Amino acid sequence: MRYPEDLVKAIEVVLEHNIWRRRQTINLIAAENVMSPLAELVYLNDLMGRYAEGTVGKRYYRGVKYVDVLEEVLSRGFSEVLQAKYVDVRPISGTIANLAAFHGLAPEGGTIASLPTRAGGHISHNQVGGPKALKFKVVELPWDLENFNIDVDKARRVIEESKPNVVVLGASLYLFPHPIREISEAARSVGSYVLHDSAHVFGLIVGKRFPNPLLEGADVTTSSTHKTFPGPQGGLIASNLGQEANESISKAVFPAFTSNYHMHRYIATYVTLVEMREFGEQYADQIVRNAKALAEALHARGFNVVADHLGFTKTHQVAVDVSKQGGGELASKLLEDANIITNKNMLPWDKSAVKPSGIRLGVQEVTRWGMREGDMVEIAEFIKRVLIDGVEPKKVAEQVAEFRRQFLEVKYGYDIDREIGLKILDSVGIRLA
């Protein structure tokens, strides 16, 4: 078969990307991860082209009996892990999960209290994102720079005065657990719900290295399934609320925000959940160790690592003020040229999201590739050569690629059994020579 030239070029781009990202770069984007070989294989299935509008046992389409089995077992699995009465795995992203929860819990024109983006709040919590589209009013939770966390006393006053329908905890830049118990008490006193966005720390929660928000007092937790929880891109909502509130959230998921749930991800998500039941504590523990080691190594090399007086971090993330190195935009570009992938990030003292002073680093993916504390020292040295020593990034890129060749096998997950692999490929009409 002869493929058109433009198709050949497009395929080559994908192949080049795969090799670059998986064999030559150090990926420190805090919002990404890689699936295990088994999860990636089962991600290839017929459900990628199917619909199943509705809920288990109450669908609008036929041909969904196997979908019901998958959705039910996946929801039950997360319910057990999170000790939640209600779990909805239909949201296709963490942002959709947030919007559905807001829509289900707050009336039209309601009020949300959340952190601003400069203090780590995600755009789906703020006036620039989904709440604006839903016409919600957003009030800011105050930030305590010294403790690099929510200012509990001031937050209590904000909650008492504004009486928001939903108080949002959890963050996009998330170094330390938020004071869920204290904020929940204040919210409960004025009849507010507390939603914890667990997207970044979900794998640490499942791995028991971060507090379970539902056990700390949150009414609802939302998450994506592809950050510290190393599954396919997707979202979920979990709660211990009553039936009426849960049904309101469910109706927000469908028909308000989704019609196609991207169901081919269900089995890959379940594989990842089972992997996390077996390897999750070990994986989460190493993530936290690696983040601490990276922060300490960067600090020792002259970087202004945020929250040094607090021990830098208790999650997978490290925040670095690179103002002296040209700011987040320039620093992240130089590092990319050196095969080190990061993102620029606002810090609490920043005014511009376009030209912030910080970069955000996450170690969950490099940990998945088998890196440990000593390797974090190597990574810190690479970063120093580029941003402090001024070494040509392309020279460092070659060294990074050489270093990366030691780590080409995904850890803390399942490999592919040949017999199962061939059966899966055959079931979708792919026959190997």
Your description of this structure?
- With 433 residues, the chain is an alpha/beta fold.
- The chain folds into two domains: 234 residues, Aspartate Aminotransferase, domain 2 (3-Layer(aba) Sandwich), CATH 3.40.640; 125 residues, Aspartate Aminotransferase, domain 1.
- It contains 16 helices and 17 strands.
- The protein is globular and about 60 Å long.
- The model has no long low-confidence stretch (mean pLDDT 97).
Indicate the CATH class of the largest domain. Alpha Beta
Low-confidence regions: none
Q: How would you classify the quaternary structure?
A: single chain
Mean pLDDT: 97
**C-alpha-based Rg, rounded:** 22 Å
Amount of helix: 40-55%
Figure out the total of helices.
Answer: 16
Structural class: alpha/beta
Task: Give the strand order, joined by hyphens, for the main sheet.
Answer: 4-12-11-10-9-5-6
| Sheet with the most strands, sense and barrel status | 7 strands, mixed
- What's the end-to-end separation, in Å? 15 Å
CATH topology of the largest domain: Aspartate Aminotransferase, domain 2
Overall shape: globular
Give the CATH superfamily of the largest domain: Type I PLP-dependent aspartate aminotransferase-like (Major domain)
Number of strands: 17
CATH architectural arrangement of the largest domain: 3-Layer(aba) Sandwich
Approximately how much beta-strand content do the residues carry?
Answer: 5-15%
Structural domain tally? 2
